[in-house]
Amino acid sequence: MILVTGGAGFIGANFVLDWLAGNDEPILNLDLLTYAGNLETLASLSGDPRHVFVQGDICDRALVDRLLATHRPRAIVHFAAESHVDRSIHGPGDFVRTNVEGTFTLLEAARAYRAGLDAAGQDAFRFLHISTDEVYGSLGAGDPAFAETKTYEPNSPYSASKAASDHLVRAWHHTYGLPVLTTNCSNNYGPRQFPEKLIPLMIVNALADKPLPVYGDGLNVRDWLYVSDHCAAIREVLARGTPGETYNVGGWNEKANIDIVHTVCALLDELRPSAPGSHARLIRYVADRPGHDRRYAIDARKIERELGWRPAETFESGIRKTVQWYLDNSQWVADVQSGAYREWVAANYAARGQGT
Ligand code: NAD
Ligand code: TDX
Predict the structure, then answer these.
(1) Percent of the chain beyond pLDDT 70?
(2) In angstroms, what is the span from residue 86 Cα to ligand 1's centroid?
(3) pLDDT tens digits along 90-146
(4) Which portions of this protein are annotated as coiled-coil regions (predicted)?
(5) Is the pLDDT of residue 353 over 50?
(6) From the candidates 40, 82, 134, 236, which is the catalytic residue?
């Protein structure tokens, strides 16, 4: 068994679904179900004994200790976080709590748990920390992409909290010998992403004929990776990564935000021809995000060289699948927007009791 934290969020849920599609090793999924956690996304696993879900907080040391002692996982894959930059600007406290204190709590619990394993168990145990390219700061137009050796220069409360968690993870390896691995990934997109992030927000707003807000001049650049490619990279790092190492994960897809928005609009024009005019008519330039990082780019050569991982999707294939998924899953979108997924959890899941 492996313990996944944050497995009801966007990347975590995709990871759980992909893992159990190709593997019978069970997952213990610990997630607080904040606004970003959505068990409806995992509805296809309802009743599947390979998926044990526990609603709980990674900051709750007694709960984490109990789960480790009861389920005896061979690894922890740590996704749980507050993840939205704009929210971190308006309310940084939750980011420090979950991302810093929560990671600290997991590290301490993992250290104590591993100390109680036999020598083979200690050797095999892994703590895989999922992090972001944002810890490296902002690039100028001609700067080289972020390699693993780049200095940390986080600029937002979100990236500062993730950087702090990366440092704790690193220190628990150097000081206590915990077999940790860290991945720093670029912007993910794909099915099941909460519509606060750029791509799903643009799709969902366009479908509702609402404005498409583009921050500043729209020329900020991000590297984009299809979520199932990220999940494949995580599986590779977990299986064959070297403890103590970090691996940058990226899609080799640098795009300006305005180009992303136009791509989404063009796909919707094609896939939804009954719309009243081109979706691009909804684009509105709005005030910039405070401290908005200009450009991120990932140098993903290390993970390719050492572990043989490369993204399978091109941006063109991934964005088409993504737009189609949102068109095909209008109920999921409606439930997320109305908060009805919480009622779904109460009706379909909580009634069965939680695994502990
Ligand atoms: P998300 O916001 O969609 O999901 C986060 C999940 O964590 C939710 O299910 C939420 O309920 C859970 N959670 C929050 N606080 C918790 C707590 N205290 N205890 C237990 N669970 C809690 O995030 P995501 O986009 O899926 O990102 C997952 C991880 O990947 C994060 O660590 C993020 O920093 C990292 N990451 C994300 C991206 C991206 O583009 N989304 C890119 C690189 C790295
Ligand atoms: O409405 C919008 N308009 C807009 O122009 C939104 C929501 C975003 N943007 C811009 C800001 C960014 O330059 O689009 C870009 C992408 O924004 P987000 O989707 O909020 O992502 P970003 O801030 O780049 O951070 C993401 O990638 C790294 C994830 O949210 C993080 O969790 C991850 O670590």
Answers:
(1) 97
(2) 14
(3) 999 999 999 999 999 999 999 999 999 999 999 999 999 999 999 999 999 999 999
(4) none
(5) no
(6) 134
162 Cα nearest atom in ligand 2 = 34
Query: 127 in a domain, yes or no?
Result: yes
| Average pLDDT of the residues in 25-29 | 98
**How far from the centroid of its chain's Cα atoms is residue 155's Cα?**
19
Point out the ligand nearest to the CA of residue 184.
1
CB of 137 within 6 A of ligand 1: the answer is: no
Judge whether 134 counts as a catalytic residue: yes
Domain residue limits at 113: 2-189+227-252+292-312+339-351
* 274 Cα–ligand 1 center, Å: 36
Residue 117's CATH number = 3.40.50.720
Instruction: Please list the residues that pair with 215 across neighbouring strands.
Output: 286
Counted domains in the chain: 1
What's the 8 CA to ligand 2 centre distance in angstroms?
20
Indicate whether this model's pTM tops 0.95. Answer: yes
Burial grade of 243 (CB within 10 A; 0-12, 13-18, 19 or more): middle
Q: What is the pLDDT of residue 349?
A: 66
From ligand 1's centre to the CA of 10, what distance in Å?
A: 7
| Ligand 2 site-directed mutation target among 204, 205, 222, most atoms within 8 Å of CB | 222
In the predicted structure, residue 351 carries a pLDDT above the cut 50: no
